[in-house]
Amino acid sequence: MGGLISSFSMAQAAEVEMADEMRASGKIYVVVAVLTVIFLGLALYLYLMDRKISNLEKDQG
Amino acid sequence: MKGIWWKLLGVVLVCYAIIAGFTIEVPALPILHETIRNLFFHVTMWFSMMILMLVSLVYSIKFLSNSNEANDIAAGEAANVGMLFGAMGLVTGMVWAYFTWGDWWVNDPKLNGAAVAMLVYLAYFVLRGSMEEPIKRAKVSAVYNIFAFVLLIVFIKILPDMTDSLHPGNGGNPGFNTYDTTTALKTVFYPAVIGWTLIGIWMLNLRIRIVKLSIGNIENQ
Asked: The pTM is what?
């Protein structure tokens, strides 16, 4: 398991590839927007369920 | 809507985690590259699971001390939502493994331990399903829940730390604290943990209320 750690020290000399082009071209914001929309959709679903349950609780109690 | 503030906070914090998670500058590390951002998703799934399983444990112990059915309901549902987060932790971990270690699964104590821990909780639900009498079901599953939680800690933390592991933070490998050279990771990670946990608690809250409604319906009939 020393292999993982020694490969870090060996690779320190070379530059590590990162998604700089995605950020420079603004494409990363497409990723962010898509994920945010999906998550907000799920959160909306939770909210609507919550409201439905609250109404059922009111009817029962 | 009751509890609107902590629910809204959960949504806001996860949105923040998504936006900041992809746009902040992160340490450029070999092997990981940009996938270090998975810290805000894969790891937060497991943290949320741990908290929910702890909630389940607390309710199991509460049930054993006062035999209130509501505690048993909460214990079962907390473990249920916890399992969802655990499953998501496993799947996101597998995707991360594929792109960094080259394989969907490796024969590693942490990974195998996590899988076994999930099976332990799966058995909790099998146990619950096998007993029809509510009080007996509640008592037996509450006792099992205590063992399940102990096993969870053993399989996910204690054993992987004792031996060689490929997984960050176990078996002699540095955890992400060491990689967080600019502390930028922490500024997104901690809010993300809180956010995802609050979402999990919201889901738990809804599930418990549904069970209580259905019991109320049965009793009224």
From this structure: 0.90
